[in-house]
Write a structure and sequence with these properties.
single chain; about 400 residues; alpha/beta; Enolase-like, domain 1; TIM Barrel; 2 domains; four-stranded antiparallel sheet; binds the ligand O=C(O)C(=O)C[C@@H](O)CO; binds magnesium ion; L-lyxonate_dehydratase; RHMD-like; metal-binding
């Protein structure tokens, strides 16, 4: 079997969106005097869809969620010529070919995200070619079904957050993640706001539900050091990305500071990046996203690495490209799940683009043993609501 064509298309949402309100979610821009559209650091309303065709008619589908127009240009100009004419089963060779030939500029960030999209499509082809789901190619089913946590609870008024938390309980979720709205610039009153929001959610969910806390890199080390002891009484399952992704020593300091596990890795790349995080004991939970970290080929290696350090892997986002990895390793006890709703941040855009993602039932998702590949196809229903760049 040979790869004959690589097609990268950008899908930009032009349909209805919900605008985030002020203090919706702390983020890395909050430290600057002129934050500009700071929400833009994590809001993305476009996606790259990669379709790779083979000479026996199989089409594999991959995706990239970051900087879609740049990802498309990288795939078109650099990556497609490297994989066309090659056997998709040589996935490790093809990964190294893409990684090494773009190494000067591509090993982290959007270069690696573009490689991820191609790699995911290659794994989809392999699954379809042998008529097996991708998780069977990665080691098979290690759990009856995958527990997942509801991930939204952006900072709004506390009553709305409480109602939202209650809705996840009603749907049977046993874990959920909330976002902080305030950071260092907001002083003691912002600290109080942050603590009040956690108290409000805990009040509704009680002590028997796991609660994860997300900073999205919107704090700094000093602020996080002052917040962590104050948060201990809420017993969070983890505190996520308190500082910017490059401050690995900061993560390590915070991870040793209190009983609260520090999580990260959503903005880290390849097994080399994760080896650093693990060796420095910088994170207690690993959160790569397969569509950035280097695809399934890289994520599979990181799972093995994490297993040897006894650090759980709970990938960012969930969604099919991550679920197959979670299903096939004991290193991964759980998945994230973005509730389906109107387009707001962009995380939920995935469901407008693709169909086939499993719906959670009572806080669990399952994968079908008989659906070959990743099990995704383009969702025709919303195609006319996207500006599609060929
Ligand atoms: O789900 C996460 O971990 C994210 O970081 C999502 C992002 O949209 C910020 O909340
Ligand atoms: Mg996160």
């Amino acid at each position: 079997m040979k790869i004959t064509q690589v097609r990268a298309r950008v899908f930009e949402w032009k349909g209805h969106t919900v605008a985030p309100t002020d203090h919706f979610c702390s983020n890395a821009m909050d430290e600057l005097w002129d934050k500009g559209d700071s929400m833009g650091t994590f809001r993305f309303h476009g996606w790259t869809v990669v379709e790779i065709e083979t000479d026996n008619g199989i089409v594999g589908i991959g995706n990239v969620a970051l900087a879609p127009r740049i990802a498309k240009a990288i795939i078109d100009q650099y990556l497609a010529p490297l994989v066309i004419g090659q056997d998709p089963f040589d996935y490790e060779y093809l990964w190294q070919r893409m990684y090494r030939s773009t190494h000067a500029w591509g090993r982290k960030g959007i270069g690696m995200a573009a490689i991820s999209g191609v790699d995911i499509a290659i794994w989809d082809i392999m699954g379809k070619a042998v008529n097996k789901p991708v998780f069977k190619l990665l080691g098979g089913r290690t759990k009856e079904k995958i527990p997942c946590y509801a991930s939204k609870l952006y900072r709004t008024d506390l009553k709305s957050m409480q109602e939202e938390a209650q809705s996840y309980l009603d749907q049977g979720f046993k874990a959920m993640k909330m976002r902080f709205g305030y950071g260092p610039k907001d002083g003691p009153s912002g600290m109080r706001e942050n603590l009040n929001s956690v108290a409000a959610v805990r009040e509704v969910i009680g002590d028997d539900i796991d609660l994860m806390l997300e900073c999205y890199m919107g704090w700094n080390l000093d602020y996080a050091k002052r917040m962590l002891p104050r948060l201990e009484r809420f017993q969070p399952r983890w505190l996520e990305e308190p500082v910017i992704a490059d401050d690995i020593d900061g993560y390590a300091a915070l991870n040793q500071l209190t009983s609260i596990p520090i999580s990260g890795g959503e903005h880290e790349f390849t097994s080399y990046g994760f080896r650093q995080l693990l060796e420095k004991r910088a994170v207690s939970v690993i959160q790569y996203d397969t569509n950035r970290v280097g695809g399934i080929t890289a994520a599979h290696k990181i799972n093995a690495l994490a297993e040897s350090f006894s650090v759980p892997v709970i990938p960012h986002a969930g969604q099919m490209h991550n679920y197959h990895l979670t299903m096939s390793t004991l290193a991964s006890p759980m998945s994230e799940f973005f509730p389906v709703h109107d387009v707001e941040i962009g995380n939920e855009l995935f469901y407008y683009l693709f169909e086939g993602d499993p719906e959670p039932i009572n806080g669990f998702i399952d994968l079908d043993d008989n659906t070959p590949g990743l099990g995704l196809k383009l969702n025709e229903q919303y195609l006319n609501q996207f500006n599609i760049i060929e």
